[in-house]
Write a structure and sequence with these properties.
Number of domains: 2
Structural class: alpha+beta
Number of strands: 4
Number of helices: 4
Mean pLDDT: 77
Strand content: 15-25%
Radius of gyration: 16 Å
C-alpha cells in the first residue's frame, strides 16, 4: 500500500468514525418513516464496516465438513449482550450471552442459505466495545 492509499484509507476511516459518533449523539437522524432512507443509511454503514474490517481479512479453508463460511464481526457489551453484523450475509444478530449468540448466528445462516447447520462454519471476530467497528455495529442495529 503506497502513501496515497494510506492517506485515502485514513481519511475514509476518520469520516466513518465521525459519522458513527454523530449518529450516536443524535446529530444525524434517519427518517424511519422512509424505507429508502433507512436502506441507504444501513448500506452506507455496512460498507463502512466492510471497508474497515474485511479489506484485510483473508479467507481460510473451511474446516471439517463445512460447506459455507460466514464472517461475523461482533462485540460484547459491558452489561452482557453480544451484538454483531454478518459481513458475508446481509444481517444483524444480538443475544443475551455468547452461547445464545452462537446459536442465533447459526440459525440466521441456515435461514438465509438453506444449508443444514452442520454444514455452516461461522467465523466470529470480536472487536473492542469502544472501537469504530463496534460503533458501526451499534448503528446497524439502530437502523
Amino acid at each position: 500500500m503506497d502513501e496515497e492509499e494510506r492517506e485515502t484509507e485514513a481519511a475514509e476511516n476518520a469520516r466513518l468514525a465521525e459519522f458513527a459518533e454523530r449518529f450516536e449523539a443524535g446529530d444525524i437522524e434517519i427518517d424511519t418513516a422512509s424505507v429508502s432512507h433507512v436502506q441507504l443509511a444501513r448500506q452506507e454503514v455496512f460498507e463502512a464496516l466492510w471497508h474497515i474490517f474485511m479489506e484485510d481479512w483473508e479467507e481460510k479453508p473451511s474446516e471439517g465438513i463445512a460447506t459455507r463460511e460466514d464472517v461475523l464481526v461482533a462485540y460484547e457489551a459491558e452489561d452482557g449482550p453480544v451484538i454483531g453484523v454478518f459481513m458475508t450475509l446481509p444481517g444483524v444478530v444480538a443475544a443475551d450471552d455468547m452461547a445464545d449468540f452462537d446459536e442465533r448466528a447459526r440459525e440466521f445462516v441456515v435461514q438465509q442459505t438453506g444449508v443444514t447447520s452442520e454444514k455452516v462454519q461461522v467465523s466470529m471476530h470480536l472487536v473492542q466495545a469502544d472501537s469504530v467497528e463496534a460503533t458501526l455495529i451499534r448503528v446497524m442495529h439502530l437502523l
